[in-house]
């Protein structure tokens, strides 16, 4: 059974999400602020976090940063603000989805299912360690090392790299990357992909050229097996 943490300072919202989550077979824990959410994450292993941005003590973005330092947990952000800047900032932090309030609980559960399914598929797709020269991708451990030094990738950068490698030597459009890595109805644009590719290349150092830009199309990971 998947275990979900709901973080929102509005009790009624927590109650509604909890009701739908439990109906869908999830085990649920609750937190009313960011500080206590971090404490719960230190003591428990959650499969996914649903978290509001505007909260007392510590906002959702700051809470996300702190949680990502200790555990790689998928996060769906909730916000009353739908500005593009907030969405892009959230995805750069490594969140998996962004939903604007008011929202449909049924849609939220659909997105939860997609995120958990995508994470499970990535974890179970391979059990080996992939090597391309001095670039090593450890699938089970979800780590990347460059000439023996661990690269500091965000969860979303790792998922993007893994997807590129999984489909190596295949041209992938930006729309395809957005759909398969970010989700079926992510409302991002090309800048989301380009920003993550730029950061990913910077982290790969001398192996940045494995990620090839296809002008007018997208990207591909070009390397020999």
Helix coverage percent of residues? 40-55%
Q: For the terminal residues, how far apart are their CA atoms?
A: 37 Å
Largest sheet: 5 strands, parallel
How many individual domains? 2
- Looking at the structure, the CATH topology of the largest domain is Rossmann fold
User: Can you name the CATH architecture of the largest domain?
Assistant: 3-Layer(aba) Sandwich
The helix-strand sequence is EHEHEHEHEHEEEEHEHHEE
Estimated share of beta-strand residues? 15-25%
Category by helix and strand content: alpha/beta
Assembly annotation: single chain
Number of strands: 12
Biggest sheet strand order reads 2-1-3-4-5
General shape: globular
CATH class of the largest domain: Alpha Beta
Descriptive notes:
The chain has helices at 11-23, 34-43, 60-70, 84-93, 105-125, 155-166, 174-182, 190-204; strands at residues 3-7, 27-31, 48-52, 75-79, 97-100, 129-132, 135-138, 143-146, 149-150, 172-173, 211-214, 218-221. With 225 residues, the chain is an alpha/beta fold. The chain has two domains: 3-123, Response regulator (Rossmann fold), CATH 3.40.50; 126-221, Arc Repressor Mutant, subunit A. The strands form three sheets. The chain has a five-stranded parallel β-sheet with strand order 2-1-3-4-5, with helices on both faces. The chain has a four-stranded antiparallel β-sheet with strand order 6-7-8-9, with no helix packed on it.
